Amino acid sequence: MKDKAKLRNGNGTGRPALLTTALVATLALLALLSAGIGAYDIPLTDVLASVQHHLGLGGAPLDRVGESVLWNVRLPRVVLALLVGASLGCAGALMQGVFGNPLAEPGVIGISAGAAVGAVAAIGLGLSFFGNWTITVCAFIAGLITVSSVYLLSRNGGKTEVVTLILTGIAVNAFAGALIGLFVFFADSGQVNQITFWQLGSLAQATWPKVLAVLPCAVAGLLVAPFYSRRLDLLSLGERPARHLGIDVERLRLSLILVVALLTAAAVAVAGVITFIGLLVPHLLRMANGPGHRFLVPGSALAGAVVLVAGDLAARTLAQPAELPLGVLTALLGSPFFFWLLRRTRRKQGGWA
């Protein structure tokens, strides 16, 4: 009976294992479809055969054009979508756990826009002090400054107020938009095209060097995040109970803010501003399995990868031969969900005031 109760409440091992298996299977299928579908169609069996051949597990190579399309265009894009989606999904789960606020998300409170300002400043000012890593470093620093500012401005009396958090995010987004507009005003035509990329969000320029640029930040953040799951569960009981149970709340928040900035900046640096992944994915998993962070943090990374690989496939196939901006597509789908979430929370809590 106890095991059945745990499964119903999402605290047992059955449901998380089932969800993890379903997400892994869906991600593998979507990755194969995304690698094969496009202007130059490649059958899924040929995709598998080529991958097996490159891994030394048998299989067979494709013709010259097929190999070039698969390994120079499609697979870098699939891997980049996986890394960016996992980073944004995991960052969203951490943000909501850190602030104890279901509406917290890197995009909603301005971290994505702040990181984009860093990237746009690097483009607009022609900075190159770290070579290919300059844009990533600038995005990381700007994202860190933004999230720290939002965190400090939202605190009042030792607590993080929901309304102040959202309003601060609105102000930060507006300020970041103004800075980006200023850089566009002074930029030449080539820089304007690059800046437009950040504003719309896209994986169209995915290459293996870009994958390698985001890989260390994404992997480091994704590996570190699950180790904070138990402390996030204790923090969800409230700051005072968490302190009584031995949690250094301020140190935990500052550590996770660094992890969130690392994940978000890495994603924004290579893909531009892609919103709502970090908001939508943790809520879907929370509804499916409950609020426990032991599954929610790694599960959000996995589900974020699923959503973004699917979104990228839709962005480049729905309006062929044109390609929809990925950030625009996620905003079109995420905005209605956000409105529904606001109304649902208001109905359950009796209002925001």
Query: Which percent range fits the helix content?
Result: over 70%
Distance between the termini: 41 Å
pLDDT < 50 runs, ≥5 residues: 1-10
Radius of gyration: 21 Å
Shape, please? globular
Oligomer designation: single chain
The secondary-structure class comes to mainly alpha
Strand content: under 5%
Strand order across the largest sheet? 1-2
How much is the average pLDDT? 83
Number of H/I helices: 15
What string gives the helices and strands in order? HHHHHHEEHHHHHHHHH
Largest sheet: 2 strands, antiparallel
- Give the number of DSSP strands: 2
Descriptive labels:
353 residues, 15 helices, mainly alpha, two-stranded antiparallel sheet, 2 strands, disordered N terminus
Task: Describe the protein.
The chain has 353 residues and is mostly helical. It has 15 helices and 2 strands. The chain has helices at residues 2-9, 14-36, 44-54, 64-99, 111-124, 134-154, 162-186, 189-200, 208-224, 229-235, 239-244, 249-271, 277-289, 293-317, 326-349; strands at residues 155-156, 159-160. A hairpin with a 2-residue loop joins strand 1 and strand 2 (159-160). Mean pLDDT is 83; it is low at 1-10.
Topology:
Layout: H1 2-9, H2 14-36, H3 44-54, H4 64-99, H5 111-124, H6 134-154, E1 155-156, E2 159-160, H7 162-186, H8 189-200, H9 208-224, H10 229-235, H11 239-244, H12 249-271, H13 277-289, H14 293-317, H15 326-349
Antiparallel strand pairs: 1-2
